[in-house]
Design goal:
The protein is mainly alpha-helical. Helix content is 74%, strand content 0%. The N and C termini lie close together (9 Å).
Length: 155
């Protein structure tokens, strides 16, 4: 983007990305309620509400984690850049967690068979695990957008 002979932007990016990644893991696996996890991909207003509630707690977790990192390191970030970064993270998270958009993207990119990899067969409960293609694509989508969010926050 622009010259940074001191490497300050690279260091800020690395610190922000690490903080956002930690926040992602905590918010997606510890903070998210079972109701949110079970309901956020359902059609209609109930699904939208559950997803919005999850994204709100997810974004709050990210903000608290960033604040803790800033307090511990003394790093200073542009508040507008942080606001844009957290917005990118929140919007992209909502899109993925509504399920249908991510599935359509996977289908469009030829990854539809991978998306359904490991899901239980219709009428069976034969693979209750996190090891599905949908989960892998969901997590990689989120991490990719954490990268983008960290760029906005740090530069």
């Amino acid at each position: 983007m622009f010259a940074d002979p001191t490497g300050a932007h690279a260091g800020a990016f690395a610190a922000v990305f690490a903080a956002l990644y930690v926040a992602h893991q905590i918010a997606d696996h510890w903070v998210q309620t079972q109701w949110q996890a079970d309901t956020k991909g359902q059609p209609g207003w109930l699904g939208r509400l559950a997803c919005a509630a999850h994204v709100a707690t997810y974004t709050l977790t990210a903000a608290v984690t960033l604040a803790a990192m800033l307090l511990a390191t003394g790093l200073r970030l542009d508040p507008w850049g942080v606001a844009v970064g957290l917005t990118v993270s929140a919007v992209s998270h909502y899109i993925a967690d509504r399920r249908t958009p991510l599935r359509r993207i996977a289908d469009a990119l030829g990854a539809g068979r991978f998306y359904v990899l490991g899901t239980p067969r219709h009428g069976h409960d034969d693979n209750p695990s996190l090891g599905t293609g949908a989960y892998a694509l969901d997590q990689s989508w989120h991490i990719g957008f954490l990268f983008v969010a960290a760029l906005f926050c740090a530069v």
